[in-house]
Amino acid sequence: MKLGKEYVGPIGKEMYVVNTGDWRYQRPVTNRGKCVKCGRCWLNCPTQCIREYDSYFEADLSYCKGCGICASECPAHAISMVEEVRE
Amino acid sequence: MSEIKVLNGNKAGAYGAMLSRPAVVAAYPITPQSPLVEYISQFVADGFLDASMVEVESEHSALSVLHGASLAGSRVFTGTASQGLALMYEPYIRTSTLRLPIVMCIVNREVISPQSVWGGQQDSFTVRDAGWIQLYMETNQEILDTIIMAYKIAENPEVLLPVNVCYDGFYLSHMSEPVEIPDQEKVDQFLPLYTPTHVKLDPEIPMSVDPLTPGDLLMEYRYKHVEALQRAKRVIDKVDTEFGEFFGRSYGGMVEKYRLDDADYVLITTGSVSGTARVAVDRARDEGIQVGLIKLRALRPFPREIFRASLEGKAAVGVIDRQVCFGWGTGIVYMELRAALRDLKDAPPTVGFIDGLGGADITLDHLQRAIDITQQASTGKIEREITWLGIEVD
């Protein structure tokens, strides 16, 4: 719902106004060498933030809430949860 | 060629909708709106209107169906009244805040309790602050013409807001008058097919609809909505003028003035009572009383500037309300007019009248009494600010 450069109401293309990754306390880190690219993290992610790359899957941290389901579901144990530390 | 038929208000509304070529109509029947939808349904069945007629299970669903259709790029139409409007309230607000240019008739009916099916404007007035444009009708011809205009106002890129075309239950909806039905080709020229540019759902181009929105961004959308309603003032007047050029009929836009220029006293009316008020004005004039009339057409946006310019220096103003403003002890137009005239130099004394609730008649006698009281108010003698016409109050 863009007029000129701005949205006139809460409808529009590429309108992501809430980065659900803002309140995460831990983040998933994929060991790309271990990833077998089965896609189970992609299937199970409740925020649908897993993105596909050539040889692995990885979370988009703008939207990952850090729930850890992907790490728990990964059959190759390629994902580990790492605590977020504010500098 | 245009033709003249004898139509009740609901049928005039159905013609207005048909000529505007909506692609989807969804509605649930409620007195006194039911015939409006039955006529449209007949037009579709007989092949005069190429639209999907969706029979839904409630008013909430009716408007929700139209949200989807409007988001998908269709021009859409519906109508309701009273308790149906109340049931519709949740999607009603979302229609305006999503900025969907939907046109909906409200066939004004008293709200219950007490149980009533008759006229009264409490239903649509109660939802005046839900962000829609609301226009009020005096005649069946005005209903037909204004529905066509309403689409042109709603779809204007400067506006992008839904419009209510409100007309009094029974007084207009079930009363017949001669109505000129404009030629379809001419209407098509005036109101081209709807081609949305601001939003159109398409699986090829995914869009977000109503994502969770933080306060600062929500405030920005509200600000734009409020500003769009202000811009609509200009558009309502402009579309009315254009309509006059096309079809030879116009209604003044935000307000219609009658014998106002040389008037000392001014009556303000909304809806079908304006017709009776014209006669009351004429009779008073015959007796040498210099009275005029302003018919309020647009309750939202409220024509504040027009009232200030038109009423400055008048001797007194009387406002006829067909609803009440709970908590203020006045009518709603009265209260809003007082707010609009605030700080006006030379503001006239103003009195209010409440009448015509639940289908009670606002008779000529009542209006003549209102003119008398307004005239007295000009001398500074105001016994009571609000008079309930037609009932005895101590």
Plain-language structure description:
The complex is a heterodimer of chains A (87) and B (394). Chain A has helices spanning 40-44, 69-73, and strands at 2-3, 6-7, 11-12, 26-30, 50-52, 57-59, 79-83. With 87 residues, chain A is of the alpha+beta class. The longest helix of chain A has 5 residues, at 40-44. The mean pLDDT of chain A is 89. In chain A, the strands form 3 sheets. Chain A has a two-stranded antiparallel ribbon with strand order 1-2. Chain A has a two-stranded antiparallel sheet with strand order 4-7. Chain A has a two-stranded antiparallel sheet with strand order 5-6. Chain B has 394 residues and is an alpha/beta fold. Chain B folds into 2 domains: 3-247, 3-Layer(aba) Sandwich (Rossmann fold); 255-388, Rossmann fold (3-Layer(aba) Sandwich). In chain B, strand 2 (24-27), helix 2 and strand 3 form a beta-alpha-beta unit. The longest helix of chain B is centred in the middle third of the chain and has 33 residues, at 215-247. Chain B is globular and about 70 Å long. The termini of chain B are far apart. The model of chain B has no long low-confidence stretch (mean pLDDT 96). The A-B interface holds A 1-3, 7-18 and B 71, 97-99, 157, 160, 198-199, 205-214, 217, 221, 224-225, 228. Strand 3 (11-12) of chain A pairs antiparallel with strand 9 of chain B, so a sheet runs across the interface.
